[in-house]
Amino acid sequence: MAALFTGKVLMANRERDEVETERELGRALENKVLLLYFGSQQCPRCRQFSPLLKDFFLRLTDEFYVERASQVVLVYVSRDETEEQQSAFLRSMPKRWLALPFGDAFKRELELRFAVSEVPAVVVLKPNGEVIVGNAVEEIRRLGPACFRNWQEAAELVDRNFLLAEDFEDWTRRSITEPIRRLKYKLDKKTEAKNKEREEEAEEAS
Fold first, then answer.
1. Is residue 112 within 8 Å of 119, Cβ to Cβ?
2. Which of 31, 44, 45, 49 has the fewest CB atoms within 10 Å, measured from its CB?
3. Do residues 58 and 94 make contact, with C-beta atoms less than 8 angstroms apart?
4. Are residues 189 and 124 in the same domain?
5. Any idea where the Thioredoxin domain is (predicted)?
6. In-domain check, residue 78
């Protein structure tokens, strides 16, 4: 996925840091589902959708909700009218978001490449750049974080360690008896071995 942004610059949210070297981009983007969020704070539909997308992203990446952050990265492609508007919007969004610098001409190239004509739009991409969903806005509204599993499978990024909070609770309930089962297994094995020894001794004695 870093290939899509080769030679380009991405901004780390709320920081002046730029993610631009091939190595940095690789670390930030490779082996992840990439969401390109085309939006603008001047657009009423975007103002309605952005809080949903924020919650969606946090539920997949924040340790409050998941044991381990999922393999997802989001890049904000702004249609804001000023850099101040873009900065103000990003300050209200998750720190893990990346963004195309304001006024970057690459924005137009991305809009044409992924046929983005109106906002909000969320283009979902595999790590190799193939499109999974042309615009996932309605899917995110309808399904929430559950739709990430479908994208993960489509991208062939099956991560056994990724668990939504509710899944983690189920897993914990199932796993809490695991040490007891192991101990019982060991005791059963010891008892079985002792019984076998006794049988062998009895056979030898007779």
1. no
2. 44
3. yes
4. no
5. 1-142
6. yes
Same domain, 50 and 105: yes
**Residue-level length of the chain:** 206
Predicted local confidence at residue 141, as pLDDT? 97
For residues 58 and 134, membership in a common domain is answered with yes
109 inside domain:
yes
In single-letter form, the type of residue at position 107 comes to K
Examine the domain organization and report whether 29 and 113 are in the same domain: yes
The rounded Cα 197 to chain-centroid distance in angstroms is 55
For 121-164, write each residue's pLDDT tens digit.
999 999 888 999 999 999 999 999 999 999 999 988 755 454 45
pLDDT number for residue 127: 87
Report the alpha-carbon distance of residue 100 to residue 74 in Å, rounded.
11
User: What tokens were used for 111?
Assistant: 């809009």
Q: What is the pTM of this model?
A: 0.74
- Per-run averaged pLDDT (10 residues), the chain, 206 residues: 79 67 71 95 95 97 87 95 94 93 94 96 93 97 94 77 49 42 49 71 71
d(CA 191, CA 28): 53
- Segments forming the whole domain that contains residue 186: 174-205
Do 142 and 41 lie in one domain? The reply is yes
**Which candidate, 175, 141, 35, 9, places its Cα nearest to that of 96?**
35
Residues 105, 183 within the same domain? no
Quick check: 19 and 9 in contact, CB under 8 A?
yes
Do the beta carbons of residue 106 and residue 67 sit within 8 Å? no
User: What total number of domains does the chain contain?
Assistant: 2
